[in-house]
From TrEMBL:
Species of the source: Citrus sinensis
Protein name: Str synth domain-containing protein
High-level lineage: Eukaryota, Viridiplantae, Streptophyta, Embryophyta, Tracheophyta
Length: 370
């Protein structure tokens, strides 16, 4: 009879097997943790931004009037315009993303002049009958029947980049915004993520051909407009709307213009009655709160801009506010569903109609105000 072989209990085999599996699992977890830490350290160390955490105000909840009697003007004939302006003869102009300056004739947008640029944004009409157009990449253009002139592309020896919006004063001077003095237009997300005031307000004097810095310290400076009496100039920023005094006892001071905004202000235009129309961009307050809860989140989004564009989504429906000269919000027009327009970048009042312009549309909206 063959001697019997001593066997180990089944539980002992299972325990030893588990121990053998546990050790490699610990090594794998540790390795992944080290890789993750190294990855995050690399993102932070080589990050293009030095972020601060902002206190983004909660969007104010205001009584609103839903947009009605909406007309799509020239649908399919304008390619993602940012702004519009009316000249002294009552002709309305806009600049499109494909470089065409178009004017409205008998309800139709007609090609007028062409600029070889896809970064045309804010514009204004001058008393001499010209158009001044901001070009994110190339400074300021002057457009007339005679053609196109890129008349301001350098300021104090540095190339003018990220010009955003412009307005003319009665003396012919031009006030214009530079959204960021640090980052280029295609890096706009870095400026927003960093959360520091790199924006500027500048003034161009055509008589001397000199450009001067009026004020800085703006958070992504955007739309600009002069008051009816030209005693102050309003600048829209990422989360703020401030005015810089040009005359009077408060000359040279920067103060809050409008508070309790229902979203982020974009472009601003003076209305015929001396009030202002401000386009409002709706942002997800919860996502903005998450964004400003951690510098690491900002570093990660700066490293992967496509994530930023998914995290900070624009839209939520057309939204414009009408603000009195003292900064009081007197009208709040909305399209809560976004069926009319996904969002609006500028509003221009002509008589009793409001033209609404958007970078995401191939038309310009028109509504009756009364």
């Amino acid at each position: 009879m063959a001697p019997s072989r001593k066997t180990e209990p089944e539980t002992s085999k299972k325990g030893r097997t588990s121990s053998k599996l546990f050790v490699p699992a610990c090594y794998s977890f540790g390795f992944l943790l080290v890789c993750l830490i190294a990855f995050l350290l690399q993102i932070v160390y080589f990050s293009p931004i030095s972020p601060v955490l902002d206190e983004v105000p909660q969007p104010a909840v205001l009584s609103a009037t839903q947009l009605q009697d909406f007309i799509k003007v020239g649908e399919g004939s304008v390619n993602h315009p940012e702004d519009a302006s009316m000249d002294k003869n009552g002709v309305i102009y806009t600049a499109t993303r494909d470089g065409w300056i178009k004017r409205l004739q008998d309800g139709t947008w007609v090609n007028w002049k062409f600029i070889d640029s896809q970064t045309l944004v804010g514009l204004t009409s001058t008393k001499e009958g010209h158009l001044i157009i901001c070009d994110n990449a190339n400074g300021l253009h002057k457009v007339s029947e005679d053609g196109v002139e890129n008349f301001l592309s350098y300021v104090n020896g540095s190339k003018l980049r990220f010009a955003n919006d412009v307005v003319e004063a009665s003396d012919g001077s031009l006030y214009f915004t530079v959204s960021s003095s640090k980052y280029l237009p295609h890096e706009y997300c870095l400026d927003i993520l960093e959360g520091k005031p790199h924006g500027q307000l500048l003034k161009y004097d055509p008589s001397s051909n000199i450009t001067t810095l009026v004020a800085d310290g703006f958070y992504f400076a955007n739309g600009v407009a002069l008051s009816r009496d030209e005693d102050y100039v309003v600048v829209c920023e990422s989360w703020k709307c401030r005015k810089y005094w040009l005359k009077g006892e408060r000359k040279g001071k920067l103060e809050t213009f409008a508070e309790n905004l229902p979203g982020a202000p974009d472009n601003i235009n003076l209305a015929p009655d001396g009030t202002f129309w401000i386009a409002i961009i709706k942002l997800d307050a919860r996502r903005m709160k998450v964004l400003n809860s951690s510098k690491l989140i900002k570093h990660v989004l700066a490293a992967y801009p496509k994530l930023f564009s998914r995290f900070i989504t624009l839209g939520g429906g057309a939204h414009l506010i009408n603000v009195a000269e003292d900064g009081t919000i007197i009208r709040n027009l909305v399209d809560p569903t976004g069926q009319l327009m996904s969002f609006v970048t500028s509003g221009l009042q002509v008589d009793d109609h409001l033209y609404m312009i958007s970078l995401t549309s191939n038309f310009i909206g028109k509504v009756q105000l009364s």
